[in-house]
Specification:
single chain, 498 residues, mainly alpha, Growth Hormone, Chain: A, globular
Length: 498
């Protein structure tokens, strides 16, 4: 039995200061990512009308539909370009400025973006929307890279999984908040769209007010800066004076184990054969997180809801229900991740998503067979979203933190962040063609993706629950040595036979 397993029973809840620090990090981190994915949907028509009016005023002619579509697509998709830039610089900033310092500085991008988008209408410059979306994309890219890093490093081993799920909880909370605030009863009317887009400043201001009250990552202070006293103070504030000894001991052990090692850059991590399976695993999981069909589900949701007889003007409210579902499952994942473990949740999630892909294909293929089939489609949509939130949506970021030690973790987040944003951009560009070409059978493609990654996790990824970072690394290295030994034996047998 692992020595850490008893710690969960000894203490049922993490320290209050730890929860507040995590919440402060998340509200200006991954909450912004989720919020800015969904909030742009509500004012689509209003922003297009503004672009057309501005174009007419400048050139005395209406804008062509093709140019309007291009400009709107640029406003929406440049968010992913900003995210990629943010992911590429986030890891380096976290080493130079610290995890907390990077999160605080990152808010300048959000405040600048809110200012640009808020002033676009009054100045008659739709170009400010493009700049604003690029800046908020950079903010989201840095946040989704550095915030999980901070959460993973401030959490005690016994609560690292539950704390890590905070990333997905706040992403889904951000998506839900963007959907709700975009309703016509709030800021979803035409005259309010500049205010709606500039509300992204609110999470940034909240983080600037709250996060400075909490310490820097204890691991960063000791392992990167050599500040033993600062590490001790941070642990006492975050974990309590009684519970910080075990964590201090673990960090000291990691420090002695990594003595003389420098923080790796992405190229050095790619070249490190001892961590190839960890790196391959997190690259695969982050790519599949975007390519597993969750985007297709949201694309088909409106169609399924219309087929089910829901009035057009009520569909936005049902869509809010899908956001609420994902938020609830993220919370559920947080409650279950320490008892069931990471491997069970993520494998089970992808398995259930595979089953849902089959059912969705069948129900979409036979929509007119019976009046009940559209409702079955709706159930499948919600089941797919629930399955995603319960496993892949919540556990992927936890594994990215847990599979690497301090010297490799920032580089791992740079790589996985870049993969995530490139996959996001790829699915945005290719997905419409997949849907047009395969129609409902596109879910068979996602079936293959989900089933394949479920098998990979079963075979390759160890359970990381209640294990220290060093224990996880040693388990992977032991597995790598076995594979290398097997390869050497096979080579010797082959040479003998020849």
């Amino acid at each position: 039995m692992n020595s850490n397993e008893g710690s969960v029973s000894e203490k049922e809840l993490p320290n209050k200061s730890l929860l507040l620090a995590a919440s402060a990090a998340c509200i200006g981190g991954t909450f912004q990512y989720g919020y800015n994915i969904s909030v742009i949907n509500a004012p689509t028509v209003y922003v297009q009308n503004f672009i057309n009016a501005t174009w007419r005023e400048r050139y005395q002619v209406d804008i062509s539909q093709d140019v309007l579509t291009l400009l709107w697509s640029t406003i929406v998709s440049i968010f992913t370009l900003g995210g990629l830039i943010g992911a590429l610089i986030g890891g380096s900033l976290s080493v130079k400025l610290g995890r907390k310092g990077t999160l605080l500085v990152n808010n300048t991008f959000a405040l600048a973006a809110a200012l640009m988008m808020g002033l676009s209408h009054s100045t008659g410059l739709f170009e400010l929307l493009i700049i604003g979306r690029l800046l908020i994309g950079i903010n989201a890219g840095i946040g989704i890279c550095v915030q999980p890093l901070y959460l993973g490093e401030i959490a005690p081993t016994a609560f690292r999984g539950a704390m890590g799920v905070g990333t997905s909880i706040f992403i889904t909370a951000g998506i839900l908040a963007g959907q709700v605030i975009g309703l016509k009863e709030l800021l979803g009317r035409e005259e309010y769209w500049p205010i709606l887009l500039s509300t992204t400043c609110i999470p940034a201001i909240l983080q600037l007010l709250i996060l400075p009250r909490f310490p820097e990552s204890p691991r960063y202070l000791l392992l990167d800066k050599g500040d033993s006293e600062g590490c001790r103070k941070a642990l006492k504030q975050l974990h309590g004076s009684v519970d910080c000894d075990a964590e201090q001991e673990e960090i000291d052990k990691e420090k002695s184990d990594s003595a003389g090692l420098e923080v790796k850059n992405p190229w050095e991590l790619f070249a490190d054969r001892s961590q190839r399976w960890q790196l391959l695993t997190v690259i695969l999981l982050n790519a599949v997180q975007q390519l597993n069909g969750i985007n297709a589900i949201y694309f088909y949701a409106d169609y399924v809801f219309r087929q089910s007889g829901i009035p057009e003007d009520r569909i936005p409210y049902v869509t809010v229900g899908t956001g609420a579902c994902e938020c609830v499952t993220a919370l559920t994942c947080g409650l279950l991740v320490e008892s069931l473990g990471r491997k069970v949740l993520i494998t089970g999630g992808y398995t259930l998503m595979s089953i849902c892909c089959i059912l969705i294909t069948l129900t979409l293929s036979f929509q007119d067979a019976s009046p009940i089939v559209p409702y079955l489609s709706m159930v499948c949509v919600f089941a797919f979203i629930l399955s995603f939130g319960l496993g892949p949506g919540g556990v992927t970021n936890i594994l990215t933190t847990e599979l690497f030690t301090q010297t490799s973790r920032p580089a791992a987040y740079i790589i996985t962040g870049a993969v995530n944003w490139c996959s996001f951009f790829f699915i945005g560009m290719v997905f419409p063609f997949i849907v047009v070409g395969l129609v409902q059978y596109c879910f068979l493609v996602f079936l293959v993706v989900c089933a394949s990654v479920a098998i990979y996790i079963c075979v390759v990824v160890p359970e990381t629950k209640n294990k220290t970072f060093l224990e996880i690394q040693n388990e992977f290295q032991s597995s790598n040595n076995k594979k290398a030994s097997s390869d050497d034996t096979g080579a010797k047998l082959l040479s003998t036979a020849l």
